[in-house]
Specification:
Length: about 1150
């Protein structure tokens, strides 16, 4: 009972570790990695439980451990080493240890345990002396290799520094950071590394501090040391360093590129911006971004790094114990995960399993066919990577049945043809009446890891013709009889050879010319599948393209090349070849053309073609040794046989390989390559190649393998993208290759598609264009089978930091104290601009290093410089920036502000200037769509106003009481000015045929239409209204002032559109005379409910108002001959 309870307890324990338990034999304790001091004693645990007797022995690096007085096995199976030795070679005790336990059911192998002797090496990187300015940052580093990892401290003038203070930070990886360096920090520093083995001190480095320049100029943030790509083992700590400079001191922040939140429980900031991730887990992997930002601004710079979390193997699917009859089939499945991907190894009774005709391994599966009694054993699945190993076990029990039939007898094989063999046999001697079927098994007799094929036939015959064999091959055969209770033993094996046949096709020709009068013809021997026997002879035929007479040469079957000499230069020749076996001649190849060279052009390259898979060809070449002509590039032509030739692929002179992808399987392609220079095209090298079949004749019914899945892309640079994908779950013992297709989205030229080959499940695609969106697809190739393309994934490269400054920087003075600066984006492609920075300062401020800073979004190419002082010369420069960094500043542009020569100062103009900043900011935030909407609205309103004005004028001319109304208005004006302007509201207008007339009304937030028409005026008519409402001096001054308010940072300023821009700016952008001073005495746009509130004051101060040139709305009533719309 205790034994049963113990096994159950271990069973549940093993579920968490990925090892299933069965009572016959299992481990209670297994060895683990250990680090010890030299000459210390160590015990490597190993305890096995199961049916006695159990024998335990130890392996070191796969070889049995020889026991002696110093190294011996304890009674419980553990290994004891009394004094650990660290001598060189095999005499050292360091290595990988495993224990092997065995009883009558079989043997099992423990996990691997590494024994490491504590040590510490010399410093790989010593700290170096540096010179820094006062107030800046200093960084010293050292690097050393040790087991276990050392603790690193620093000494300043032989005194130990604290690990962390407000200014000083010591990182665990050996980096010393000093911020806000002071003169007292100058001195000698050295690095101390300590572990259980020893302590080492580095050489001393001197830190020299120089005085800082005064005054200190503003400095953009700059990351002097950014994070580096690292790979960290599970549960270890990751250190991402980030150190930046700038004036003022930048603020450092961290984020993830995938926008996921950073784990605050396992992550902390060490010092002034370094990120430490403790107890790292798989979810912590990804791209981390360090951002250094100037406080209070949007000036920043970014550096990024990728963190890869390495994990030991863990089993997600375990093999299960099986009970199978003899001649049956057993399948064990084992699937593991880890980073990097674990390799699966199968063990039988502690020894590695090798594939043969009966036993096959398909990646994570072990399949045993035609089980025999010797297959009864304990099988283990071992998953291993750089981080460790894990094992799981299962037992195969073979059941023997006594009433099964005996094996078929007298198996015979006779050759029928080059692809067929007749098998015949006699029925089993015992229980032949119970046989329900026979299975015929055959495979190639030569080579390793040949696949075994099986055909099942009924019990009514003992003869069978196998007709899908390859010519001229040796095969081995055996037969098994089946009954309801199981299968018989295998019959005796017989061997038989198929007959030869004529070659299936001709070799592929490769043609080059070493001189203008020869052609070097070469070819590769036919593979066995195509030769269908031993090739005894070749026949080479050639002629010129202009003649029909054909010359022929017969060459022995051992030759693979021939030189045709005494040919005509600059002539097209046609060549073809045919191969023969002892049976006869095969099929001739198609005619291949080749032009012999002419002088002064490059000779033909030496061309080699290699099929990578059934849809891809690798083209390799090199210049002919005797070539003396200059090569400017290559042109590659290829086309399918009997198809028109494609446009050439242009290649650089430095290229010597090219991959042709997207081809059809089992097709013949003609490939031509020539070099060219300024004289013309060189001599071409021609070769024909056939793509292999994706599905062989025998496996024509086998579906293609599934495509790779879980394709994942990421990028942390502007020229490279990293791809990772998963291998689909299918069974095969052959190696797997992948083709990666890469091209920019929307590419029209198919010849520019990039095809890359790899055998790994990840690839870093380099030399890409910045800020470009790419599409990727992956297909798999295995044993001449190709999968479909995987679903397309998209990824964009990051933009480059601008390398050029903004162009066409111009500065224009638009008011006495306001200037407009405009520019164009940098003249470089594929560069995204996130924002622009404008620096400007007067010459005196520039000498003192005091710049004023403005920033505008990347879509804005204009800004206002306000509150400029008269009589000063200003310097202006602009730079472009994006997430990858800041670009250079443009050349400095000078602006001279004129001195203010007027004795007086216009109060309205002054007030407008004080509010211009707020106005500009409001206009600055209008985006392109808002401006378009406003412009369209203004145009529609103008059209409506013109139509209304036209109707008003027409009605006025037809009015019969116009003259009387005109005289009444004139008399009203002459008697008192109090009733002139305030009484003219939005619902009243004056009309007269013989006077200059105008209507006006202004209400807050409403539209005002002013229409004026110049008509004849009688000299004796009163001019009071004219004096009040029309003053050209007011019109000119007000127009200029309003224009300054209407100019924003939208990049659309125009002097000709000054007034219209002001009118379209909205109620929030009105000049202060219409907004901020509505309650003042100069405001004539009173509310409608108080039409006469200040008439008397207006009449009294009329002359003072005119002298002050404050036109207010009186000026707006008659401002020349213009129409104005105010929103």
């Amino acid at each position: 009972m205790p034994y049963g309870n113990y096994c159950i307890e271990y069973f549940f324990l093993s579920l968490s570790t990925g090892v299933l338990c069965f009572s016959e034999l299992f481990f209670i304790k297994e060895p683990h990695d250990v680090t010890v001091m030299r000459r210390d004693a160590v015990i490597l645990d190993c305890q096995a439980h199961g049916e006695s007797p159990i024998d335990v022995r130890w392996l070191k690096n796969g070889v049995n451990v020889l026991e002696n007085e110093r190294v011996y096995r304890l009674s419980n199976g553990s290994l004891y080493i009394s004094e650990v030795e660290s001598r060189r070679g095999d005499k050292s005790d360091e290595g990988l240890y495993q224990c092997l336990a065995q009883n009558k059911y079989g043997a099992i192998l423990s996990q691997k345990a590494r024994l490491t002797i504590a040590s510490i090496s010399a410093f790989a990187i010593q700290p170096t002396s540096i010179v820094v300015t006062q107030g800046s940052v200093a960084r010293l580093s050292c690097k050393i290799s040790a087991h276990p990892p050392p603790i690193i401290t620093w000494e300043f003038n032989r005194v130990t520094l604290p690990l962390a203070t407000e200014r000083i930070t010591v990182l665990p990886n050996g980096v010393l950071q000093i911020h806000a360096v002071q003169r007292a920090d100058a001195g000698n520093y050295r690095c101390i590394a300590t572990n259980i083995a020893s302590r080492r001190r580095s050489t001393e480095a001197t830190l020299t501090v120089t005085p800082a320049p005064s005054p200190q100029l503003p400095q953009r943030p700059h990351i002097i040391v950014g994070p580096q790509n690292i790979s960290v083992s599970l549960h270890q700590n990751a250190i991402l360093e980030c150190m930046a400079t700038g004036n003022p001191r930048p603020i450092i922040s961290w984020s993830r590129a995938d926008s996921k939140s950073i784990d605050v429980y396992s992550t902390k900031v060490l010092g002034n911006g370094n990120l430490i991730i403790t107890d790292i887990k798989p979810q912590h992997g990804g791209v981390y971004m360090c951002r250094a930002t100037t406080p209070g601004t949007r000036n920043y710079t970014v550096a990024s790094a990728n963190v890869t979390v390495l994990a030991p193997p863990s089993l997600v699917e375990w093999p299960e114990s099986l009970t199978r009859p003899r001649a049956g089939t057993a399948r064990f499945v084992c699937h593991a995960e880890g980073v990097p991907t674990p390799q699966i190894t199968w063990l039988k009774n502690g020894e590695k399993v090798h594939s043969n005709g009966r036993i096959k391994m398909y990646n994570s599966k072990l399949v045993i066919n035609q089980i025999i009694p010797e297959d009864d054993a304990i099988y283990q699945c071992q998953a291993e990577n750089e981080q460790g190993s894990v094992l799981s076990m299962a037992r195969l029990i073979v059941v023997m049945s006594e009433d099964r039939p005996s094996a078929p007898r007298n198996l015979r094989a006779d050759t029928v043809s080059s692809s067929a063999i007749l098998l015949a046999w006699d029925r089993p001697l015992y229980n032949s009446d119970k046989v329900i079927a026979y299975s015929v098994h055959y495979m190639k007799a030569e080579g390793l890891n040949n696949e075994e094929y099986q055909v099942v036939i009924g019990n009514d015959t003992t003869r069978y013709i196998i007709d899908d064999l390859e010519p001229a091959r040796n095969y081995t055969f055996y037969v098994v009889a089946y009954m309801p209770m199981g299968a018989s033993r295998m019959s005796d094996h017989v061997f038989q050879h198929t007959l030869e046949d004529v070659p299936l096709r001709a070799p592929e020709l490769s043609l080059t010319s070493n001189s203008p009068m020869d052609i070097q013809v070469s070819w590769q021997p036919l593979p066995d599948k195509l030769s269908r026997g031993r090739v005894t002879a070749y026949r080479l035929s050639y002629r010129t393209s202009a003649e029909n007479a054909v010359s022929q040469l017969e060459l022995p079957g051992e030759k693979t090349q021939h030189l045709l000499e005494n040919l005509q230069p600059d002539t097209i020749y046609l060549l073809r070849i045919v191969a023969a076996t002892g049976i006869g001649w095969g099929e001739q190849s198609a005619w291949t053309s080749h032009r012999t060279p002419k002088a002064s052009i490059p000779l033909a390259p030496e061309l080699r073609l290699e099929p990578l898979n059934c849809t891809t060809i690798l083209v390799r070449w090199q210049l002919a040794p005797r070539n003396s002509a200059i090569v400017q590039g290559y042109r590659l032509f290829y086309h399918e046989e009997s198809q028109p030739e494609n446009a050439p692929v242009q290649l650089r002179a430095l290229d010597n390989t090219h991959t042709i992808g997207g081809l059809d399987p089992r097709k013949k392609y003609h490939v031509k390559l020539l070099a060219y220079n300024i004289v013309g095209d060189g001599y071409q090298a021609d070769q024909t190649i056939s793509t292999p079949g994706c599905v062989s004749v025998r496996d024509r019914l086998v579906p293609p393998p599934p495509p790779p899945h879980n394709v994942y892309t990421k990028t942390n640079s502007s020229t490279a993208i990293f791809l990772h994908w998963g291998r689909p779950a299918f069974t095969s013992s052959h190696s797997v290759n992948y083709t990666v297709r890469c091209n920019p989205v929307g590419l029209q030229n198919a010849s520019l598609v990039l095809y890359l080959q790899t055998s790994e499940q990840n690839l870093l695609v380099r030399d890409l264009e910045p800020n470009t969106k790419y599409e990727f697809a992956i297909r798999l190739h295995i044993d001449q089978l190709s999968s479909p393309w995987s679903p397309v994934v998209y990824q964009s490269t990051l933009p480059d930091a601008p390398l050029l400054p903004p162009s066409n920087v111009k500065v224009t003075l638009i008011e006495e104290d306001t200037a407009l600066v405009s520019w164009k984006p940098p003249d470089e492609p594929n560069v995204a601009v996130m924002h622009y920075t404008i620096l400007y300062a007067s010459r005196h401020a520039w000498i003192a290093g005091e710049w004023k800073v403005l920033q505008r979004e990347g879509s804005i190419t204009m800004a206002l410089l306000e509150n400029l002082k008269p009589g000063q010369v200003y310097l202006v420069k602009v730079s472009a920036s994006n997430n990858m960094g800041d670009g250079p500043f443009s050349h400095t542009v000078e602006l001279t502000v004129r001195a203010d020569l007027s004795s007086g100062h216009d109060p309205w103009h002054s007030r407008g200037s004080t509010h211009s900043t707020a106005f500009s900011d409001g206009f600055y935030h209008l985006d392109q769509k808002s401006m378009t909407g406003i412009t369209v609205g203004v145009c529609i309103a103008l059209i409506c106003i013109i139509i209304c004005a036209f109707i008003i004028v027409c009605r006025g001319k037809n009015s019969t009481s116009a003259s009387t109304a005109g005289h009444l208005v004139s008399e009203g004006q002459a008697e008192s000015a109090d009733v002139t302007v305030p009484m003219i509201s939005q619902n009243h207008f004056l009309d007269a045929k013989n006077i200059k007339h105008g209507t006006t009304s202004y209400q807050h937030g409403t539209t005002v239409l002013t229409f004026e028409e110049e008509l004849s005026i009688s000299p004796d008519q009163p001019t009071t209204m004219q004096a009040l409402l029309w003053r050209p001096s007011d019109t000119e001054g007000s127009s200029t002032s309003e224009g300054s308010h209407a100019t924003g940072d939208s990049g659309r300023y125009s002097h000709d559109e000054t007034e219209m821009t002001n009118l379209s700016s909205g109620p929030s952008s009105r000049p202060p005379s219409l907004t901020a001073e509505n309650s003042g005495g100069s405001d004539c746009s009173l509310p409608a409910e108080e039409p006469g509130g200040q008439l008397e004051e207006s009449q009294t101060d009329l002359k003072s108002t005119e002298s002050a040139e404050n036109g207010c709305c009186l000026h707006d009533t008659q401002s020349g001959s213009q129409s104005a719309l105010s929103l």
